[in-house]
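My current task is to audit a protein record that another person submitted. I have pasted the whole thing underneath without changing anything:
***
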Amino acid sequence: MSETTVTVVGNVATTPVYRELPKGPVARFRLAATARRFDRVRNEWVDGHTNFFTVWAWGALGTNVQGSLSIGEPVLVQGRLRVRDEERGGQHWTSADIQASAVGHDLSRGTTAFRRARQGRPGGQPDGDEPSFEIDAQADGEPKEQGEQSERREPAAVG
């Protein structure tokens, strides 16, 4: 049986819920994807139908989702689609779940700042031992350490 892999562009519809389970960490959130089209008669963009997906992110991806996403943010989700039919309380329900393999902000609609997650540090939170990348160039072109005073040097005579 082959699995259906999808990439969905939409907005985070619910706050990610994070849980530590015996199988590992998992984050779950709802994704809203609305089709838009240009109506030439009205000369404007109009919204079409909105599809909702439940996104499941396991392991490190789930930890990073929990620390990175908020309601309303535009995202891209790639993963395996699973459509479920079930009976609940005498009613028939159909749900579309995505087991995510990748989740990221949609950079066509804004900017984001990436922080590499460190092992054991959820959400890429720095642990205070981060090196400073703020360096000034000395006159000879060599970087100086933060806090080091640069001395002014005269250019060597060419002769």
Summary: The chain has one domain: 4-128. Residues 4-128 form a domain with the OB fold (Dihydrolipoamide Acetyltransferase, E2P) fold (CATH 2.40.50.140). The first strand starts at residue 4 and ends at 12.
